[in-house]
């Protein structure tokens, strides 16, 4: 009998504890603070690779909290170079960079808005020069391409940051030079010619918000100047473009990738080396979701390339 009483008391105690747990979980205001996600969700770069990211920061700074978030996010990405588009306030960008240890900022000297910019890790990157090309060619280039001539691990690289003309109807009007697709076609053709003439044997990374898709058929593809020469150029973003998912694209609202990274053949072996990768970075996971990210950072995810062979290349190759 005593055993049954003890058993009944235990069951009653368990029931009371369960009720107390349920009641304690009800009646509380739902927390509106984004969850604290471990920093590794942001990590992309490594100590053994050259890591370059392109990131359209929509109308930077988009929100009063934009800079505060980026000051914490950017160091966690651990990229050697980040190329930015849509910098509306250059002074705010420089001020932000001063609060990010180990990085130096560059914003190009261009009178228009929607500026291009760079952040680079001073411990790994030596900047030889920075300059714009095709200035005054506003029809194909509403924002002049911004070049960073740099050295990494004893080798020279050229990064070409771009923000192509936006919009269009996915139809190429060859009779209208101001057709958005025609402007992007001409920009691609001019850049390909520039690389061939000025950097035929150099390591070149062309990237940015190119405002179009690369997997389309030739009739509507504005990047054929590069795609027609696979022996010389490769879009490392092509696998993402060919199999887009909401988790892998740079422009989630339309399940598309319009932010691209292209490399020249001098970098093929580096990208083929074990550990190399190209990916869109899901920064919104750190923010608590896409809605918060859209309102406070951008409508574009950053896209990065990790070049594994670059860190281990012998200087004898140069």
Write the H/E string, N to C: HEHEHEEEEEHEHEHEHEHHEH
Terminal CA distance: 90 Å
Supply the number of structural domains.
1
Overall residue-averaged pLDDT value: 87
CATH class: Alpha Beta
Question: So, CATH architecture?
Answer: 4-Layer Sandwich
Largest sheet: 6 strands, mixed
CATH topology: Deoxyribonuclease I, Chain A
Radius of gyration: 24 Å
As a percent range, the share of helical residues equals 25-40%
> What is the structural class?
alpha+beta
Number of E strands = 12
Helix count equals: 10
**What ranges have pLDDT less than 50 throughout 5 or more consecutive residues?**
1-39
Strand order in space, largest sheet: 3-4-2-1-12-11
**Residue fraction in strands:** 15-25%
What's the CATH superfamily, by name? Endonuclease/exonuclease/phosphatase
Shape: globular
């Amino acid at each position: 009998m005593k055993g049954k009483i003890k058993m009944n008391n235990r069951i009653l105690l368990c029931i009371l504890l369960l009720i107390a747990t349920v009641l304690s979980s009800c009646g509380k205001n739902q927390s509106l603070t984004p969850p604290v996600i471990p920093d590794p969700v942001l990590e992309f770069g490594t100590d053994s690779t050259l890591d370059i990211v392109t990131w359209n920061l929509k109308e930077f700074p988009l929100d009063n909290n934009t800079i505060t978030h980026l000051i914490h996010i950017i160091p966690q990405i651990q990229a050697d170079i980040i190329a930015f588009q849509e910098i509306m306030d250059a002074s705010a960008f420089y001020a932000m960079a001063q609060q990010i240890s180990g990085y130096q900022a560059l914003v190009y000297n261009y009178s228009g808005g929607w500026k291009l910019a760079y952040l680079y890790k001073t411990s790994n990157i030596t900047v030889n020069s920075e300059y714009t090309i095709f200035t005054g060619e506003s029809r194909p280039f509403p924002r002049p391409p911004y070049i960073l001539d740099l050295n990494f691990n004893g080798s020279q690289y050229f990064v070409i940051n771009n923000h192509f003309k936006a919009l269009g109807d996915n139809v190429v009007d060859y009779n209208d030079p101001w057709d958005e697709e025609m402007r992007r076609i001409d920009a691609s053709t001019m850049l390909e010619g520039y690389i061939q003439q000025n950097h035929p044997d150099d390591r070149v990374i062309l990237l940015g918000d190119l405002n179009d898709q690369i997997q389309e058929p030739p009739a509507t593809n504005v990047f054929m100047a590069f795609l027609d020469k696979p022996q010389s150029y490769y879009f490392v973003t092509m696998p993402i473009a060919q199999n887009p998912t909401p988790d892998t694209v740079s422009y989630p609202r339309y399940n598309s990738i319009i932010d691209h990274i292209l490399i020249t053949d001098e970098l093929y072996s580096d990208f083929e080396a074990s550990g190399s990768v190209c990916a869109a970075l899901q920064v919104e996971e750190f923010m608590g979701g896409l809605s918060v990210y859209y309102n406070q950072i951008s409508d574009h995810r950053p896209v990065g390339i990790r070049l594994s062979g670059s860190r281990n290349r012998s200087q004898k190759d140069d």
